Amino acid sequence: MVAEPWRGARGMTFAPDAARGLRHVFVRGLTVQARLGVHAHEEARPQRVVIGIDLAVRDEAAPAGEGTDEIARVVDYGAVAATARRIASAGHVRLAETLAERIALALLTDERIATVRVSVEKPDVLEDVTSVGVAVERTRF
């Protein structure tokens, strides 16, 4: 399945763009147990939370080159997932918006990341819907 581009603020598209020197890095469906929500039971026990991350990452080899085949030159999606997992499990957060913002801002500490979009979904909250949640975008532009 090919990821559909997502157009964010200022026309930033989360899709590879050689002319702008960007690649699209993503983590889909990261499922964690997190204490998230405003209700007492949500603070008391973890629930299933699904996180999605899209990154517009500067590509030093674009538009016409090929970079070195070394992990150090790219944003490691394993590290991206680990950051989100660590933040989501750090303790109770009342708002999905706050959790998404914390993850986005943590990822922006990598200067290669130009823009980040984070979605946080709670799939088990309402029995007659697939999920509820929020998406936030943060950028260094």
TrEMBL record:
Dihydroneopterin aldolase/epimerase domain mapped to chain residues: 25-138
Pathway info: Cofactor biosynthesis; tetrahydrofolate biosynthesis; 2-amino-4-hydroxy-6-hydroxymethyl-7,8-dihydropteridine diphosphate from 7,8-dihydroneopterin triphosphate: step 3/4
Pfam families, A to Z: FolB
Keyword Hydrolase found: no
Single GO BP term: folic acid biosynthetic process
EC number: 4.1.2.25
Protein name: dihydroneopterin aldolase
Keyword Lyase annotated: yes
UniProt similarity note: Belongs to the DHNA family.
GO cellular component assignments: cytoplasm
PANTHER family cross-referenced by the UniProt entry: DIHYDRONEOPTERIN ALDOLASE 1-RELATED
Keywords noted in UniProt: Folate biosynthesis, Lyase
A GO molecular-function annotation: dihydroneopterin aldolase activity
Catalytic activity entry: 7,8-dihydroneopterin = 6-hydroxymethyl-7,8-dihydropterin + glycolaldehyde
